[in-house]
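[agent] plan:
  1. take the single chain provided in the ticket
  2. run structure prediction with default settings
  3. attach structure tokens to the ticket
  4. add a short note for the reviewer (M.T.)
[agent] executing step 1
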Amino acid sequence: MHHHFTPLRRLTRYFTASLLGTAADLFFLWLFTLLVQSYSATYIVGPIFSFQLAMLINFTVSCLWIWPDRLQKGLKHHFWKRFAAYDIAALMILGIKMILIILLEQMTHWGVLLCNLVALTITGTLNFFIRERFIFSPEAFPSPLEIHPEDGIMKIKGE
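[agent] step 2 finished; step 3 output follows
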């Protein structure tokens, strides 16, 4: 069954999935703060750990539910290239998130969960545009293979 993904539908799915990722991030961070008590563990190690777990969940949801129409079936090199790009973008977003958490904590003295939630809201919006335009764009990872119309044989482009 072929689904048509309008920009609004994709954005709605992204924000729905982001809520799942945010819930996972907050849950893992809360769980981590129960186990450790130091400032660096609470405000640095915990948010990095929780973000990475949420990133794995969000990548899976992105592939299966948000952008499945943009993934070419059976091409493993596409999956791994896309995953690498996704991970690099996620790490850049993580850096921005960490700066925001520490700035918010220093400026407002809010707890880590509230600082994390505000930072996730800001970085989540930025993340959608990065994923839409670069990571899951139909042009993002063109296949090096093509099917030649004269004989139907798949070859490397340009041969």
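[agent] step 4 note for reviewer: The chain is about 70% helix and 5% strand.
[agent] ticket updated
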